[in-house]
Amino acid sequence: MTNPKILVTGGAGFIGSHACVALIAAGYRPVVLDTLVNSDARSLRRVSRITGVEPPLVRCDVRDAAALDCAFAEHDIAAVLHLAGLKAVGHSVSDPIGYYDVNVAGSLALVRAMERAGVRTLIFSSSATVYGDTPRSPIRESAPYAAVNPYGRTKVMVERMLADLARADARWGIACLRFFNPIGAHESGLLGEHPHGPPDNLVPYISQVAVGERAHVVVHGNDYETPDGTGVRDYVHVMDVAEGHVAALRHAADRGGMLAVNLGTGCGASVLEVISAFERASGRHIALRVGPRRPGDAPAYWADVQHARDRLGWCARRSLDQMCADSWRWQLANPHGFDEREPALAARAVI
Ligand code: UFG
Asked: Is this structure's pTM higher than 0.90?
C-alpha cells in the first residue's frame, strides 16, 4: 500500500502531533482522532507548516463506537497509534473511575472498532509508570508490573488486555511503548508542549520560569539518595519518541505478535542537572526553591534500551542539551502556545 493512512488517537496533543510529523516524514498519512479536551487543533496547522501536510481531524471521543466506525469507514486506515488518554497521576487518585473509563474502556472500544474494520496493527502509548517503584535501574521490560497509582494501573490493564488479544489471534501486531519522560519540542520551534493551567511536569515549569511567567521552580526534595539529592529521570526528546512510533509501526505491521518496549535514552538526569541544562540553553538564570518531596515520587529510574535497539533498531539520538534548546525555542516563539497573537497584542486584548 502506498502512503498508508494511520489513525492517530490523541494526535493533536504533545506527543501525538510530533508523531504526525514523524509519520509524514516516513511516508505515512496520519488521520487524527482527538476530543481536543487537553489539546489544540491548531497544532495540526503547525504540523502542516513543518511538513506541508495537514492531517485531517476527526473530533470525537475514543469511547464513541459509532464515531470510530465512521472514521474507519471514511478513511482506509492501515494501522492505529493510540495516544489518547488521561495522564495526570494526582488526578487519577482523586478520579480513578474517570481514568479507568477513558484509558481502559477507551482502549477496549478502539480495539473492538479495529476488529470490526479488520485493522489489526496497533501501537499503544504506555508508560514507565507501569514499573512503579522498581528498585533497580536500568529497568528492563521483563521487570514486573508494579504500578502504584490508578493512572499506572490503567496502563497495566491495557497492556495485559493487548497481550491476551495478541495471544488469542495471530493476525494482530501490537507494540506497547513505555515512555520514560518525553520533553523538548520540534526543532523548528513550531510545535511543542503547552499545558492547560499550571504545569505538573518539570520542563514545562522550568520553561515558564525562564520566560518570566512564573517566579521560581520548586525542587521537590533534595534529600534523595542520588548524587545531588534530587530526583533522577530518563528524559527523552519528543522527536525521538515520535520516531520510535514509526519504528514500532513497521515492526508490528511486519512481524505481528505483541512487543513491549522502553522508549528512553538509558541515562538519568537529576532535577538540578535539567535546570542547569536549561540555563545553558536559554542563557537565563532559573530561580529555584527547595521544597519537600512530592508524594508518590520515586528517587531515581532510567531505561534499559537494549530491547528497543535489538527489536526496533531504534535508539534516542538527541541530547539533554538539545531537548532544552528545542523546548526553549518553542517557549520563546510561542509564549501563548498555539495562540499566534503577538505578546503586545495579547496584552492589549487582556486590557
Ligand atoms: N519536579 C520538581 N519540580 C516540579 C516538577 C517536577 O522538582 O515542579 C521533579 C519531580 O520530583 C521528579 C522530576 O522532576 O523528580 C520529574 O518530574 P515530572 O513531573 O516531570 O515527571 P515524572 O517522572 O513525575 O512523571 C512522568 C509523567 C508520568 C509518567 C512518568 C513515567 O508525568 O505521567 O513520567 O516515567 F508516568
From this structure: yes
